[in-house]
Design goal:
Blueprint: H1 3-11, H2 15-37, H3 40-56, H4 67-93, H5 112-129, H6 134-145, H7 150-157, H8 161-181
Protein name: RNA polymerase sigma factor
Family: Belongs to the sigma-70 factor family. ECF subfamily.
Domain RNA polymerase sigma factor 70 region 4 type: 126-175
């Protein structure tokens, strides 16, 4: 499949075209992020977000531009947002006040109320996950409840790793839609 044809098919929601584009450009986007971030997990997360955003906005892609360049631009913007978020979190953690500042030490152990709320939220989440198709339920279970890596999930499901990533991405998106409808 040619890239131009795949883009046109992807604009009409063709699953094979999305998979082709993901497989074709995954290494480029991931390599770009890994070179800048030097952290495999963060690079992978940003790469997944890049493809998610690109596939959501595929209708806005103009054919006169290079698709790889478009993806890298999306990836750069997500990286910039990520860096800004980290800087914001760091600046909130440090105080520039004088030495007379009183620091309150937080007890990070959950209170009984927090435990009940967490259990209720988990129960709601599990009910929402059960509304997904079984193959989406399985991939969410393997990734987030059994905490398997993409490679381990790929082996267990006997599917290519990129398919696992796309399936997980779609599962998260569908789950988010279910949660937001409430």
């Amino acid at each position: 499949m040619e890239i131009e044809k795949a883009i046109k098919k992807a604009k009409s929601n063709d699953q094979k075209a999305f998979n082709f584009l993901l497989n074709t450009f995954w290494d480029d986007v991931y390599g770009f992020q890994l070179k800048h971030i030097k952290n495999e997990n963060t690079a992978e997360d940003i790469t997944i977000q890049t493809f998610s955003r690109a596939f959501d906005k595929i209708d806005t892609f103009k054919e006169e531009f290079n698709f790889k360049t478009w993806l890298i631009t999306i990836s750069k913007n997500i990286h910039i947002d990520h860096v800004r978020k980290e800087k914001r979190n760091l600046s909130q953690n440090f105080s520039t006040d004088n030495d007379n500042t009183l620091y309150q030490v937080l007890d990070e152990n959950p209170s009984p109320e927090d435990k009940i709320i967490t259990e209720q939220n988990l129960a709601k989440l599990l009910r929402d996950i059960k509304k997904l198709k079984p193959h989406y339920q399985e991939v969410i279970n393997l990734r987030y409840f059994q905490e398997l890596s993409y490679k381990e999930i790929s082996k267990q499901l006997d599917e290519p790793m990129n398919n696992v990533k796309v399936k997980l991405l779609r599962a998260k998106k569908l789950l988010a839609e279910i949660i937001q409808k409430k």
